[in-house]
Specification:
By secondary structure, the protein is an alpha/beta fold. It has 12 helices and 9 strands.
Amino acid sequence: MKCIRCGGEAVYRRVYSGEVYCARHFVSSIEDKVRSTIRRYRMLDIDDRIAVGVSGGKDSLTLLRILAKIEKSFPKAKLYAITIDEGIEGYRSGSIELASREASRLGVEHIVVSFEELYGSTLDSMVEEAGRRGLKLTPCSICGVLRRKALNYTASRIGVDKLATAHNLDDEAQTFIVNILHGDLFRLVRTKPVTDYRKGFVQRIKPLREIPEKEIALYAYLEGIEFQSEPCPYRGVSLRSDVRMFLNIMEDKHPGIKFTVVRMWDSIRSVIEENLPEVELRRCRLCGDPSISDICSGCSILVSLGLRSYQPLT
């Protein structure tokens, strides 16, 4: 196979589009697609302060690398990397080191905030306590809510305009199907390429939402990005893992189906949103974060575990 841009030896063929690329032009095609996504959804302004949620995995480190390249063309912009240390023994420390090393190489300020610092406990201890108390809280349900809370808190504290997360095409397609199966229309319409501006929430953007996971893995390999490849020890069987498997099977049989799912989601989101009642946001009485109830979901988890959250930002 020959690269469609230069005629050189190809390393990758996009089955869903028929494009064939050499290593150099595959890398540039990914970066061009990210730039196009940012423009299409108007994710960034030229003087934005941008935080990237960096776990140390292939997706987040690829996002950091690409945004650092893009930022060079916008001297008024400022990039930060935020890593949340959940406190998973034998797992998180290695990925923090990888994130720190990449941020240093790119000249990006790296901020590490831990669950223990914010909530007074590690995830490992929370999982043990949930078991002792007989709570129906899985490690992923605890971690997902408290990581999002920690990211928003840290991004707010350093005063950024946007928080970039490394959700890829596979993640987006899975989320759509999972929310449909859960019958969760409110979450379905809230999950957007760029979240709506709401006081107390830093706007989130997803520059990788149109990049398939396997292409991110190849980009990271070709760019020589070192990343955490070990799966989280708490990762288990879930509805999302079943949906992931289903979509991968469908993609193999019908190339491009993940794009179709995400585009359909984009096309119907506004119609659903127009027909849903407006949800009034109030302030969580414990931490001050925006919430649809008296106590936000994060503080609700913490209270059930006998813990308290950070104090409200002033």
